[in-house]
Structure formats: C-alpha cells, structure tokens
Design a protein that fits this description.
It is a single chain. The chain is mainly α. Among the domains are: about 250-415, Serine Threonine Protein Phosphatase 5, Tetratricopeptide repeat, CATH 1.25.40.10; about 565-655, Serine Threonine Protein Phosphatase 5, Tetratricopeptide repeat (Alpha Horseshoe); about 665-750. The protein is built from 31 helices and no strands. It has helices at about 1-20, 30-60, 85-100, 120-135, 135-150, 155-170, 175-190, 225-240, 240-250, 260-275, 280-290, 295-310, 315-325, 330-345, 350-360, 365-385, 385-400, 410-440, 440-485, 495-510, 555-560, 565-590, 595-605, 610-625, 630-645, 650-655, 660-680, 685-700, 705-720, 725-735, 740-750. The N and C termini lie far apart (about 135 Å). About 30% of the residues are buried.
Length: about 750
C-alpha cells in the first residue's frame, strides 16, 4: 500500500514538473517555476559573477592619484581579458534562461505575446551589462534597446536607459547619452510630482492583461539612483563642466550606501574643487574622505592633498607623524613633497628646498614623484635666476619622467636650452679654479688637493649614511609586514609569495641596481671643485654622484688638470674667456638677462687680454647699453676703437652702415668673380691672369681672393710649358688658406 502511494505521488510530481516546464501556458505554477529559475539560475548567479569580476578588478587596480580618479574605473582592452571567463559565463547563463524560460517561448516569435515571466527582462538587462563590461558596446546597446522596446512598463526600462547612457559615453556619442539622461531625469521628476498613483505589483504577482485594467506606470528603482547621479557627473566631465559634476556627485551621496563609495566620491569632489581653484572646499572634501572606510592609499593621499590645500601646524604635525610610521616608508617621498608645499605656503624657502631634496632622494621607484620634486626645484631656481641649478634640476627631471608626465616636452626643452649655459659656466669656474691653484706654491697646492680628497671621502660617508637610512626604513617596513601577517611556521625565504613581495618592497626603496661588487664605489671621473662664492644647492641624483673609493684618489691624479706650464696656462686662460663670453651671450639672447650677461662680459674685459673674445665682449656691452647707459656704451666703444681700430666692429662704430655697405661690396665681388670664371671657361687666360694679379695685390679682404689665386695658377698652367713656375703660387695658397677647397686643389696640383 505504501509503495503504491509513493508511486502515485512520484507520478503526480513528475506530471507537475512536466506541466510546469511548459512555457506556453500562463498558469501560477508555470510562472512560479520559470520565474524562480530565471531569477536564480540566470539573473542572480550572473550578477554575482559580474560583481565578483568587477570587484576583483577594482580591488587590484593601481589608482593614479596624480590625476583625477575615475568615477567608474573600467578595464582597458588588455585588462578586460582577465574578466572574460566570469563575464562570458554570466552571458551564457542569462541567454539560456531567456531561451528556455520565456513565457511564451522565444522560439516561436509569431506567437509571441505579452511576457508572463517577470524575470526575463532582468536577464536581458544583465546580458547588456555583461557586454558593457566586456567592452562589446554594440551588443550591450542592442540588449538595452530591446528591453526599452518590449518592456515599456517595467523598471528594467530605467535600468536600460541608465546603461544606454553609459554605453553611449563609451562610444563617444555624448548627444545620445544626454538624451538617455534626460529621459531618466524626466521619469524621476514625474514621480516627484506625484503622477504615479500606484506602485508596481511585486515580481511574484502576475502582470495584468491588456484591456482588463489600467496599466500602472513603473517606478524608477531607487537602487540605481547612486549610479545614475555618478553617470550624470561623468557626462558633465566629458562636457568639460566640472561644476555640474561636483553638483551631481554631491547628490549621489544621498543614495550611497557603502562607505568606500562615499569616501571615493568625496575624494573626487576634492580633486574637482582643486581643479577649479576652490581650495577651501577641496580641503573640506579631502577631510570628509577620511571619515569613511577606504583603502589606505586613498586616505594617505587625502591627507597629502589636504595639506596642499593649505596646511596649518596641525596638518604639518600629522605629516611628520606619518613620516615616523613604518608603513609609510614607501611614501616618504610624497610626504616630504607635501611638507615642502606647506613651507612654501609659509614662505620658508630654505626648508622647502630641504624637503624637496629629500623627496627626490627617497623617490626610488615612484619616478613621477621624483620628477615632480626635481621640476619644482628647477622652477624655484629659475625664478631665483639661478639658471645653472635650474638646468640640472630640469635635466634630472627629464631623465626620470615619461611622455605622459604633464609638460614633459616643456621640461626637456628647458633642460636642453640651458645645457650650453651650464657647460659654459662650469668650464669658466673650473678654469678659474685651476688657474688660481696653479699660482699657489707647490706645498700649498698639495695641501689644497689633499683637502679636496678629504671632502670627497666625507661625501662618500654621507651617502653611505643616507643609504643606511633607506635600509632601516626597509627593515621597519618588513617588520611591520611580518607582525601583521604572523610569524608562521615556514621560513620567510621558502615562501615564494612573501619573497616576491619582499623583493618588490626592496625595489621600491632602493631602486634597481646591477649585481656587481663594490656598487657604491662606481669608477667615475673626479673633477676639481670650483673655487666660487656661490653656494651650490643642486641635488645630484644618487645614481650620478661620484661615489669613489677613497684609496683611488691620489694627489697626482688631481694635479694632472692644473696648468703648470706657460702654454697650458695660456690655453686655460683662452678657454676661460670663451666660456665667460658664451655664458654672457646665452644670458643676453636666450634669457633676456642683461645684468647677468654684463657680468660675464665684464669678467672677460677685466682680464685685459687683447683678443677677439675681448673685442666681442666690448661690442656686446656697447649694443646692450647704447640707449640705457650711454656712458657704459661710450667706454666700450673707445675700447674697441683704441685696441682694434681695423676691425669690422671699429668700422661699424665709425659708420653704422658699414655692414650694409660691405654686403653690397661682397655681392659686387661675387658678380665680378663669376665674370672672370666665365672668361677662364672660354679660354681667355691672359685677361684672367691680369684680373687675378690686381685682386691678389690690392684687395686683401676680397672674399674670393683665394679663388683668384687658384684661377691664376690654373690659367698659368694653360699658358706655360714650365709647370715649375706654378709652385710658388700654389704654395702660397696652401700657406695662406689652410683647410679650404682651394688648399686641397693646390695640393693636388703640386703632387
């Protein structure tokens, strides 16, 4: 009896399942079965897969806090590949649900009427969302448009409208995105006006049939309001309207539930207020970021940015406390940079320079931060007219930044334009120094060089101490890591994951170094320091510092550059004059620094050396001060007329049209030479010889004189059988015009 009863029950259950599987009958049991299956097998499971994939991506995302954070971080073409397995599985699940559980069946579109499965529209929407995250925007748009067309009285149409706006923005269709946003805003406004009298029945309740009773208007789900306001903010940013973006983000906070979401919104609002110059509001928003749970790095950057917006003593103390925290070891460069900004706000430039120097020193892996420190130091030096230091900072910045760095090309251009000035100034300092040392007695020279060696040794020790400080910071960071993760039973270096993390921490603090012995004592050239009153505050990159072995420096090595003979001393003096003059020209022509240029030219003139550089310096002084300081111009004019009376500059000072007239003479001389050359080509050798004799004898400054001499030699070669008669003239060409085409041709004829 019991067995018979069980068989009957089993048959009834089987029949119920068979009946329930039908998608053509609109019965309670059918709707319940297919609705439950569509809800959990498709919609719920698929959304969990999407959520986990997106959350995993966002948790692993390395945020760029130097730029405006993305309102909605999305994977790029490469990153999205990692999301494919979960996303594709979600699409398959929902697609199967749509195919197998639509009521009536999707397989017979001719019989398709009103959808009785209340969860099919959500599955269509989920397929669209999955396609969106997959970056298949065309497929996503088709799904959202389908929902909008066939489910016009369901909350899904609003979800679809929202995601259509997102998709259109990704496709660059801002006008269409604007229409989507406007449609959704209108629906929300209609609700607020009380136009909606009834709430939509729950999903478990069957939908009303057409004509039976008045259709109810679907409500905008509150669950999408946070995302919608963020989407409006993204749209405003794409329309270059940060003020509206701030307004929409403020509105989004009313609907935000997660603390991490609230923290992120406040941070972005801080960044946007900062970008439009609203520093007080930005400071407030960065402070609000700290009220909510968020990743440590976001809180850290919020504190830094709050300091940039106007740090008082309280903020400064907080930053100094952060420096002492071991977990901030890898962020020391950023903390020092923030402290420098506070000192600049308080007009404490020396302390700011100290902090910026430390910021650059501790930036071993964060090249962006190192570049920022170098750039700011360069800008400060440039503003102080210390162009040599500025060039070194700009050059150091250019070496570490990439093309994505703001104004990268401008920084590189500054470094290149100032490079010649640095070479000139350092050459002048070096030559001046070695000349002074050369004038010392032998004993004093040895003492001075020994002092230099001692200074180098002290520099090496200083660098060792700084590197040891880096190592201590690394060890503190590792200890913190060990304490937070427990000692465990496995040795540290047997754990591949831990070993990898330890290496990464080491690289962040120390940078990448080649595996070589005595890496601290790289074999680099040591230069004699310049004897100058100017304090050199330039920070040299640790990789470029000459870290020499103290035993490798000898007195003999450093004495080699000192000019102890008359010829060596004279050559050094000429290099000094040329370097001073070059620096003066750069100050004058490229930097418009008349005073600094005059200082260089005066230094040349003070040497009392009768040479071309001395004459050119006097002429530069005359041109610079001819109108502003007539007495200075007059002094330099007399200097040229007295010492260089036959020079072009002297001729110009006597006749301001001298160079114009000379140009005219040169043009006539060129025309005359062309005529003589034509005569030679026609075989009129004797008229050519006659004209050449006249030019050679009477026009010493004729620019074609060497050509006339060669033309005469070639004409004589055509008119005389004794070629030996040509040798004196050919030798004269070789002697008077070396390294010219005429000299080369004359040598060929001689040979």
């Amino acid at each position: 009896m019991i067995r018979t009863y069980r068989k009957i029950v089993a048959v009834l259950i089987l029949l119920a399942v068979i009946v329930a599987c039908s998608t053509e009958k609109n019965t309670l049991i059918n709707r319940t079965y297919h609705g439950t299956t569509a809800r959990y097998n498709g919609y719920f499971n698929a959304n969990e897969l999407i959520r986990q994939a997106v959350t995993s991506y966002q948790n692993s995302l390395k945020e760029d806090y130097y730029s405006l954070l993305k309102i909605e971080p999305l994977p790029d073409e490469t990153e999205v590949i990692g999301l494919y397995p979960s996303i594709d599985t979600a699409i398959v699940k929902c697609t199967k649900v749509i195919q197998n559980h639509s009521m009536p069946s999707n397989d017979r579109p001719s019989q398709k009427k009103e959808e009785h499965n209340a969860w099919i529209d959500e599955n269509w929407t989920t397929v669209g969302i999955a396609s969106y995250y997959r970056r298949d925007y065309d497929a996503a748009m088709k799904n959202f448009m389908f929902v909008k067309k066939f489910y016009s009285n369901d909350p899904s149409i609003y979800i679809g409208e929202l995601w259509m706006a997102k998709t259109n923005m990704q496709l660059g269709k801002l006008t269409d995105a604007g229409f989507n946003i406007a449609n959704l805003e209108k629906a929300i406004a209609d609700e607020a006006e009380g136009g909606n009298k009834k709430e939509k029945s729950s999903k478990s309740k069957s939908k009303s049939k057409k004509g039976k009773k008045e259709e109810e208007i679907a409500k905008v789900p509150k669950s999408i309001r946070f995302d919608f306001e963020k989407t409006k903010a993204e749209y405003a940013l794409r329309k270059q309207n940060p003020q509206d973006a701030i307004k929409y983000l403020e509105e989004s906070l009313k609907f935000a539930k997660k603390q991490t979401d609230k923290s992120r919104v406040h941070f972005i609002m801080g960044q946007l207020n900062e970008s439009i110059g609203n520093r007080e509001e930005a400071k407030k928003q960065y402070g609000l970021t700290l009220k909510y749970n968020a990743p440590y790095e976001m809180h850290f950057n919020a504190r830094l940015k709050r300091a940039f917006m106007g740090g008082d003593e309280k903020v400064k103390k907080e930053l100094l406390k952060m420096l002492r925290d071991a977990k901030n070891a890898q962020f020391k460069d950023q903390i020092y940079y923030a402290l420098a900004d506070i000192e600049l706000q308080n007009s404490n430039k020396p302390k700011a320079i100290d902090y910026l120097t430390k910021s650059a020193f501790y930036s071993t892996a964060n090249t962006r931060q190192k570049g920022m420190a170098y750039e700011k130091l360069g800008n400060m030096s440039f503003a102080d007219r210390n162009y040599v230091s500025a060039q070194k900072y700009y050059d150091s910045c250019a070496r570490v930044i990439d093309d994505k760095y703001p104004n990268a090309e401008g920084i590189k251009s500054k470094a290149e334009k100032l490079a010649d000035l640095v070479v000139a100034v350092e050459t002048a300092n070096f030559e001046d120094s070695v000349q002074r040392i050369a004038l010392l007695s032998e004993d004093d020279r040895v003492k001075f060089v020994e002092k230099v060696i001692k200074q180098k040794q002290e520099e090496v020790e200083r660098l060792k101490r700084l590197e040891a400080e880096k190592l201590r910071a690394l060890q503190q960071n590792q200890n913190t890591f060990a304490e937070s993760n427990g000692n465990g039973s496995k040795w540290y270096f047997n754990n591949a994951k831990t070993r990898s993390e330890g290496y990464e921490e080491f690289r962040k603090l120390w940078g990448s170094r080649d595996n070589e012995d005595n890496w601290r004592r790289s074999d680099k050239t040591v230069f004699m320091p310049a004897i100058t009153n100017e304090e050199d505050t330039v920070l040299t990159d640790e990789n470029a510092i000459s870290q020499v072995n103290k035993d490798s420096l000898t007195v003999e090595m450093l004495m080699a550059d000192i000019p102890l003979t008359d010829s060596a001393l004279q050559a050094s003096k000429m290099r000094l004059l040329e370097a001073l003059y070059t620096a003066g020209v750069i100050y004058k022509d490229q930097l418009n620094e008349t005073e600094l240029a005059a200082k260089q030219f005066d230094a040349v003139l003070a040497k009392n050396a009768v040479c071309e550089t001395d004459m050119s310096s006097a002429f530069q002084m005359y041109k610079m001060f001819n109108e502003s300081k007539p007495e200075v111009a007059s002094t330099n004019k007399e200097h040229i007329l007295t010492l260089y009376p036959n020079s072009d500059y002297a001729n110009y000072l006597r006749d301001p049209d001298y160079f114009v007239k000379r140009k005219e003479r040169e043009l006539l001389a060129e025309q005359e030479y062309v005529k003589v050359l034509e005569r030679y080509n026609r075989g009129l050798y004797y008229p050519v010889i006659s004209k050449a004799d006249d030019v050679i004898a009477n026009e010493k400054d004729n620019q074609f004189r060497s050509k006339y001499m060669l033309l005469k030699a070639m004409s004589l070669g055509q008119t005389t059988s004794n070629k030996q008669e040509l040798l004196p003239l050919l030798n004269q060409i070789v002697d008077e015009y070396p390294e010219t085409p005429e000299e080369a041709r004359a040598k060929e004829m001689i040979s």
